[in-house]
Sequence to fold (365 residues):
Amino acid sequence: MSTTERRIAVVLFNLGGPDRLEAVRPFLANLFADPAIIGLPALLRRPLAWFIARRRAPIAREIYARIGGGSPLLPLTEEQGAALAAALARRGHGAARTFVAMRYWHPMSEATAAAVARWRPEEIVLLPLYPQFSTTTTGSSLSAWAAAARRAGLDAPTRAICCYPTNPGFIAAIAAATGAALDEAAALGGEARLLFSAHGLPERVIARGDPYQAQVEATVAAVMARLGEADHDHAICYQSRVGPLQWIGPAIEDELRRAADDGVATVIVVPTAFVSEHSETLVELDIEYRALAASLGIANFIRVATVGTAGAFIEGLAELVIGALERSGGVASGCGKRWCAPALAGCPTRTLPSRGEATDTEKPR
Fold:
């Protein structure tokens, strides 16, 4: 049977989000119970997770109430899955089917692995919707999937894509939307500054060798090169900080203040690590940081949409899946080889499980 006729399950990983206000607290508990987020022993981590969730739930419920009472992430991810399946079919892979596995809210890896097992694929491709790898996102999702796949009895050959920070389709989609925003800013007059915003991480995660920050920087460099605007005024910044730890920076609020001090007329905020709209874009960027910019006297605030189902992005994902099917297996970057510099010890091509193997922390005791 040719590769194009084989039953291929493409599993899309994403964070997940509460689908209703009553789900906010258990969603947060799942998040903070993840050993990739809080590295304490389970006996201490789980009670602490529930304590943190109880304290943060009222504020989080207010955030989700502002966008209709729940996260739009699942339906948007399902739309991306449908678009990807159609793109694969156009390329001759009509037997491919996409599945969604969320990390902290339904459908989570256990349910999705069971659904994949019932479908009985001949091959599996794991595709994170996190373009830049982090141990706290893709790494966590891969570990959770490995354990769930083992329990579901999945033994089909499995290939995992760990990252694709400079994938041509991904970069083309961001660049096209950013270019349109630059044209809009030019019509308004005055100086415009690009702020590429990504979700932040504690500094200690990066210090352990996590490649996320380096990959965010690579994404921005590729977008600027694609635009032909390498010298255009721009900065990388980070958002969504929580807790008392020192996080990587600069923070987006500090970059907005710097833009105001510099007399910048227009800021263009470009989501760099998010590929779907959710609370960090629809509330933090569109409402909170837009209001901050206005209070600082910045005349114009333009927010670039996430890549979503943009044709270039979906075609880029299809290329990633097909490329994964052409290699022998295991975990690899979207370019088919080790992307990270040797100093980045968190690179998954040597630290994460492949072919359904569990990590030591996920093996039954």
Summary: Residues 245 and 350 are 28 Å apart (CA to CA). The two ends are 40 Å apart (CA to CA).
